[in-house]
């Protein structure tokens, strides 16, 4: 991911190298190149405009005109603006002060929620927590089984509706899971919810009802980084329909151009908290905006 963006920006900065002083034309040309690089990476247009304007304004200021190496100073500015757009500091999970911490996952079908639920459970286990997974995706045939299989892989129990009880209602399952977690002394509950292929009102309502039933400490919006420009409208729809505290980007190991990461963080104002980058259960970690920015500018 970000390979094209990274290459384009490297070329842009190469053109500046060795210049003692930057003229207005140099700054304009650089801004234009950065704009093209971001658009090619699939970053949403309003985000590109804002980004380029911020870089341009700072490039005209004292920090560049007084710098011994203006080109390096521009790279530093772009780096700082990238970190800012990606959410600034690494945002860590907030744990409940009393009772189990409830983390609810929302997103489209295929985003990687069920996989992510297990990865997050494993990660929490490694932090010394005793998580429990909850299967509230009762829409998709097999989703409960898939979560159970993933739960077994990471050695985390899964709370699911009793087989033979009919399909069950996800809100009741979610509510019952919290009681179960308290009884069994699980300190984190991860609630996997149903996703659809597209955003729809019924899905939003169900997710909102589950949210109201379990009052999560964190709602995480799970989104496939490969969906490019569509990620922005989906992220906005879930923000309006369900609301969330942070974003989890999945499939960062794919050949996505990276625009989704930048656009979602900027447009929703919600931090990217975790990144999932592979099929293995350990391919998952906290998202560090500064490391991601350095990777782009490497
Ligand atoms: P859900 O419908 O949102 O629950 O999505 P799933 O968890 O079933 O994931 C959909 C597909 O994406 C599965 O084939 C997963 O193996 C795959 N997947 C999930 N996360 C990642 C990831 O980070 N990288 C890659 N390459 N594939 C992933």
From TrEMBL:
Its EC number is 3.6.5.4. Residues 271-284 form the SRP54-type proteins GTP-binding domain. It catalyses: GTP + H2O = GDP + phosphate + H(+). GTP binds at residues 107-114, 192-196, 250-253. Keywords: Cytoplasm, GTP-binding, Hydrolase, Nucleotide-binding, Ribonucleoprotein, RNA-binding, Signal recognition particle. Its main location: cytoplasm. It is found in: Cytoplasm. Belongs to the GTP-binding SRP family. SRP54 subfamily. Part of the signal recognition particle protein translocation system, which is composed of SRP and FtsY. Composed of three domains: the N-terminal N domain, which is responsible for interactions with the ribosome, the central G domain, which binds GTP, and the C-terminal M domain, which binds the RNA and the signal sequence of the RNC. Involved in targeting and insertion of nascent membrane proteins into the cytoplasmic membrane. Binds to the hydrophobic signal sequence of the ribosome-nascent chain (RNC) as it emerges from the ribosomes. The SRP-RNC complex is then targeted to the cytoplasmic membrane where it interacts with the SRP receptor FtsY. This is Signal recognition particle protein. It comes from Nocardioides deserti. The chain holds residues 1 to 298 of 524 of the full protein.
């Amino acid at each position: 991911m970000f390979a094209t963006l990274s290459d384009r920006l490297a070329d842009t900065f190469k053109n500046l190298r060795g210049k003692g002083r930057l003229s207005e034309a140099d700054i304009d040309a650089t801004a234009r190149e950065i704009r093209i690089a971001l658009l090619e990476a699939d970053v949403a247009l309003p985000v590109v405009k804002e980004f380029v304007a911020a870089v341009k304004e700072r490039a005209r200021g004292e920090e560049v005109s007084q710098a011994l190496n203006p080109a390096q100073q521009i790279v530093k500015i772009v780096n700082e603006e990238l970190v800012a757009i990606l959410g600034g500091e690494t945002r860590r999970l907030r744990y409940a002060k009393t009772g189990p911490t409830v983390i609810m996952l929302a997103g489209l079908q295929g985003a990687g929620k069920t996989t992510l639920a297990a990865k997050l459970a494993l990660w929490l286990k490694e932090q010394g927590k005793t998580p429990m997974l909850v299967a509230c995706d009762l829409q998709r045939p097999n989703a409960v089984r898939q979560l159970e299989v993933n739960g077994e892989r990471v050695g985390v129990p899964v709370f699911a509706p009793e087989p033979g009880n009919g399909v069950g209602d996800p809100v009741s399952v979610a509510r019952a899971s919290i009681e179960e977690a308290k009884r069994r002394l699980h300190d984190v509950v991860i609630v996997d919810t149903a996703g659809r292929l597209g955003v729809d009102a019924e899905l939003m309502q169900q997710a909102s009802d589950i949210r109201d039933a379990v009052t999560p400490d964190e709602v995480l919006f799970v989104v496939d980084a490969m969906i490019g420009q569509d990620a922005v409208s989906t992220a906005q729809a879930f923000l309006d329909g369900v609301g969330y505290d942070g974003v989890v980007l999945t499939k960062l190991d794919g050949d996505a151009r990276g625009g989704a990461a930048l656009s979602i963080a900027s447009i929703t104002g919600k931090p990217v908290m975790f990144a999932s980058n592979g099929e293995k259960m350990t391919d998952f970690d906290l998202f560090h905006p500064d490391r991601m920015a350095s990777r782009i500018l490497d």
